[in-house]
Amino acid sequence: MKNINVISVCGSGTVTSSMVAEKVKDILEVNGYKAKTVEVNPGGVDGQLTSGKWDIIVHTSPLKGTYQLPCINAVGLLTGLDEEGFIEELLKTIEKLDI
Amino acid sequence: MSIADQFLHKSLIQFKQHYDCQEAFFSELNQRLSTQGYVEESYLSNIISRENIYPTGLVTSTINIAIPHTDPQHIKKPFIDITKLNSPLTFIEMGSTDKKVDVTWIFALGVTNGANQVELLQKLMRLCSQKTTINKLQSLTDIEEIYQFFSLNIDL
């Protein structure tokens, strides 16, 4: 199983990002990846990027800056309104990663 | 303790005709929550500024909702405060800075940090994806019914 490291971002870095992180883990596991996740608020992204190796950012709040790694809006996953669209984008993005 | 026991309180459910603006809603919310001892004095200013920076309007497959909440340090004990509006109030959609959503249900979440709160949000989101159940919710007209509805459906 390939490892994917995911930063999950919401306004407080607690509830919404945890819910999104859990869902992302499940989606990735079903598709043959093992995900490590961390939940932060937008201000916490830079700190994570300097202290570790991360592959992808999923977020339900606007991000503070622009980042080198792919960023995916996860609001559709949160509400379930566009879960399919999110999954498709996530898997497509991951296939392109050099891991 | 079940999720409903922990978060749901009859005194935090209301029907409201209309609010002129978000601040009017937040000010009334703060009044209700602080009188009943759920929030710190810093709650009002934090919830207003947080909603500006990290908006919480959500379009679901059934109803448009908002789930305003603060950082945990402004909360004394967990709650979900439920408001059903007759005429919609405009929020900005979560994850965006300018997309407007007119919402008729506001679920103000008092989150303190526990794992249960993720479960509460999951249950709420799942509920909003269930058309028949939400149709039932939309037809309810008194607080006791709303309370019973969420007691039943949040703990499923």
UniProtKB/TrEMBL annotation, chain A:
It comes from the Bacteria. It holds the Pfam family PTS_IIB. This is PTS sugar transporter subunit IIB. The lineage of its organism: Bacteria, Pseudomonadati, Pseudomonadota, Gammaproteobacteria, Orbales. PROSITE patterns: PTS_EIIB_TYPE_2. InterPro entries: PTS_EIIB-like_sf, PTS_EIIB_2, PTS_EIIB_2/3. It comes from Frischella japonica. SUPFAM superfamilies: PTS system IIB component-like (SSF52794). Keywords: Phosphotransferase system, Sugar transport, Transferase, Transport. Residues 4-98 form the PTS EIIB type-2 domain.
TrEMBL record, chain B:
The keyword DNA-binding does not apply. InterPro entries: PTrfase/Anion_transptr, PTS_EIIA_type-2_dom, PTS_SugarTrans_NitroReg. Gene3D superfamilies: Mannitol-specific EII, Chain A. Pfam families: PTS_EIIA_2. Residues 6-153 form the PTS EIIA type-2 domain. Keywords: Sugar transport, Transport. The keyword Aminoacyl-tRNA synthetase does not apply. This is PTS sugar transporter subunit IIA. It comes from Frischella japonica.
